[in-house]
Amino acid sequence: MKSIAISGSPRENVGKRDAKELRYQGLVPAVLYGGATQTHFAVSAADLRAVIYTPVVHFIDIEVAGKTTQAIIKDAQFHPLTEQLLHIDFLELDENKPVTIEIPVKLTGTSPGVKVGGKLVQKLRKLRVKALPKDHLDNIEVSIEELEVGKSVRVADVKVPNLTITNAQEDTIVSVTTSRALRQAEQEGKGK
Q1: Distance of CA 149 to CAs 113, 124, 143, 158, 177, Å?
Q2: Could you tell me which of 79, 58, 84, 67 has the C-alpha nearest to residue 32?
Q3: What beta strand segments (E) does the chain contain?
C-alpha cells in the first residue's frame, strides 16, 4: 500500500482556544494514538488534502519532533457548514497487530449482462478489511466477467488471501439489473 509523508509540530496547549488559534493559522489539530502514549500535534491543512480528499487509502508516515510513526486516518471531523477540516485522529500501526481499513472496490472485466442492455449497479464502493498492515492492498478487484442480467456478486463471493472482509457476507457489491429499455424490448417481443 502507498505511503505519504507529512510532518507536524507538537502542541503545548490542548484546548478549544488553542485549537481555534491553530485553525486560524491554517493548521489542523491532530492526535496520534494506539502506541505507548498519545501525541497531540498540529499539521498543515494543505498537507492533508492529498490524504483526505481521495478515494485511495494511504498509510501515512507522520514526523513529529524528529520521530517518524506509520499510521492511518481513523477519524476526521469537518465543520457542518464550511466543510473545513476541524480535527483529525491517526491510529499508529503495529506490524504485528491487525487493523481494519475501508479499501476501495475496483470492478474488472466486461459484464455480458450489460452488453445485452442490463444496468450495472455498484452498491458497495468500499469494503471493510481486517489484516496486518503489510497485507493490506490499494484496492480489491471484483470481476464482473460472469455477471448476467439478474445476477450479482456478494461479499461472500470475494476471497482475498491474508485479508478478512468484515462486511456482512450477504451484502451485494455489484449486480446487473434489467434496464427500462430491456424491459420494454421484452414486452414488445411478448406482444407480437
Answers
A1: 5, 18, 15, 19, 6
A2: 67
A3: 3-10, 27-33, 39-44, 59-64, 67-78, 85-92, 99-108, 119-122, 126-131, 140-143, 152-154, 164-165, 172-177
Q: What is the DSSP letter of 168?
A: -
Q: Can you tell me whether residue 179 is helix, strand or coil?
A: coil
| pTM of the full structure | 0.78
- pLDDT at 78 (0 to 100): 92
- Residue 127's pLDDT is 93
Cα separation of 97 and 135, whole Å? 11
Ranges of H-type helices in 32-179? 45-52, 112-115
Q: What is the mean pLDDT of each run of 10 residues along the chain (192 residues)?
A: 85 82 89 87 89 85 90 91 90 91 92 88 93 89 90 92 92 88 71 56
Cell of 169: 457476507
